[in-house]
Design a protein that fits this description.
By secondary structure, this protein is α+β, with helices and mostly antiparallel strands. It has eleven helices and 20 strands. The strands form five sheets. A five-stranded mixed beta sheet has the order 16-17-18-12-19. The chain has a four-stranded antiparallel beta sheet with strand order 2-3-4-9, with no helix packed on it. The structure holds FE2/S2 (inorganic) cluster (FES) and fe (ii) ion.
């Protein structure tokens, strides 16, 4: 059932005062990677349609304040970090992290005028190499400590792409577990065919993924969708109809918009900062180096001529989202069986908006520090299902080789780590089977 124009507006608009904007202001949002402040400690950011300035002062404190000085509106993104706070470049008014003016160096000595000056200021926190902001009413709930941001001995790197489309288009990809068969199978192969016809270089990893990946099946597959306390989960029966079912859990959605390592942050109504938060935790006992700051890089969106790229997995997803338009017209859709989870998630969003509009607290909000430790949103807890992660078998070509990770500044380190881990595991398997043989011989 297609949506009405009003329903589509209500689901997509995130500005202050809109129903979705009010719902989303209950949650913490990533606004930058910590690594981005290394290059420049002051940065303009836009989140939920609000223009703000993020800074780290010389005392190491983070602040997130309105982007215009209260004096005569100069842009604070050009401000000077002070020992405590940020100074406007024009006449030096200084603001602390709450947006309170704390100094007006050119005003008469003893003037108390500064005490009456306050601009917007929002709480910020750092977790897992990302800087998170809370734009809602005080008191702020806890920043949820999901396992991927806290897990020890884990290799992390973060990719980001600014996409020219509404956040819900990105999110709804997570409700669509069957697009892989086409977009990352058939379409990928077609892209490679076109590239080869044009004499462009195609990587071995791309060819291997496109031709050997297990998204290849394209017949009908049964789906199951279910809500759970953190959001929505879903499963695909990987067996063809009529055979013994093999249910595998597909990417879950953690309310409101995180799906595993993919976080599609609503920048405004028509822009989404798509973060791919990548982690690798060795299965053997090898140590992972702990960098001072988690590396961040921009995933390429277009080639030198400005033509969009399609030759890696996430770029194909990106195309599927932004080519729907800046805010897709959901009155024109024809939803089918495979959209089961998309429909379910829209319903969930509507219900949560209603709760907030009626003055209640929406789902997946954390208040108790004791229950906010390494929150685990998977894997499948059902006897009839396994998680996709369990399916990963050792191979010389990890799946990430055909995706965003290949552009990472620490890609070589990741590959080394992966291969060492695989070697140690293989050796361990050999030794344990030797032991087994020993025992048999001794008997
Ligand atoms: S405009 Fe900022 S101090 Fe004057
Ligand atoms: Fe995809």
């Amino acid at each position: 059932m297609a949506l009405t124009a009003e329903e589509n507006e209500r689901l997509t608009r995130v500005g202050p005062g809109t129903p979705m904007g009010r719902l989303l202001r209950w949650y913490w949002h990533p606004i930058a990677a910590s690594a981005q402040l290394l290059e420049n400690p002051v940065r303009k950011v836009r989140i939920l349609g609000e223009d703000l300035v993020l800074y780290r002062d010389r005392g190491g404190r983070l602040g997130l304040i309105g982007d215009r000085c209260a004096h005569r509106a100069t842009g604070l993104q050009y401000g000077i970090p002070d020992e405590e706070g940020l100074r406007c470049p024009y006449h030096g008014w200084r603001y602390d992290g709450r947006g309170q003016c704390t100094d007006q160096p050119l005003e008469p000595p003893g003037s108390m005028f500064k005490e009456r000056i306050r601009i917007t200021g929002y709480p910020v926190e750092e977790l897992g190499g990302l800087i998170w902001a809370y734009l809602g009413e005080a008191p702020a709930p806890l920043l949820p400590r999901w396992d991927q941001f806290e897990r020890p001995n884990t290799f992390r790197h973060i990719a980001g792409t600014m996409l020219p489309c509404n956040w819900l288009q990105c999110l709804e990809n997570g409700g669509d577990p069957r697009h892989g068969a086409y977009l990352h199978g058939h379409f990928y192969r077609y892209v490679i065919e076109r590239m080869q016809a044009e004499g462009k270089e195609v990587t071995e990893e791309a060819i291997r993924f496109a031709f050997e990946n297990d998204y290849g099946f394209q017949e009908f597959r049964e789906l199951r969708v279910e809500r759970f306390p953190y959001g929505q989960r879903k499963w695909v029966n990987h067996a063809p109809p009529g055979e013994e079912p093999r249910w595998l859990e597909h990417t879950i959605v953690v309310f409101p918009y995180m799906r595993g390592g993919q976080i599609g942050v609503p920048v405004d109504d028509t822009h989404t900062w798509h973060i791919i938060y990548m982690t690798y935790t060795p299965k053997s006992s090898i140590d992972v180096p702990d960098p001072e700051v988690v590396p961040y890089f921009e995933a390429p969106f277009a080639d030198e001529r400005g033509e969009p790229l399609f030759d890696y997995i996430t770029a194909q997803d990106h195309m599927a989202w932004w080519s729907q338009g800046d805010i897709t017209d959901r009155t024109k859709e024809h939803l089918a069986y495979t959209d089961m989870a998309v429909v379910g998630y829209r319903q969930l969003l509507k219900e949560q908006m209603d709760i907030v509009v009626e003055g209640g607290e929406p789902m997946n909000i954390f208040h108790d520090p004791a229950s906010n430790v390494r929150l685990d949103h998977g894997p499948a807890r059902y006897p009839w299902a396994r998680s996709l992660a369990d399916r990963e078998t050792p191979s010389s070509q990890p799946r990430f080789a055909a995706d965003t990770a290949q552009f990472s500044p620490v890609y070589r380190q990741l590959l080394d780590l992966y291969h060492t881990d695989q070697e140690v595991l293989a050796r361990r398997r050999e030794t344990s089977s030797d032991d087994g043989e020993e025992k048999i011989r001794r008997r």
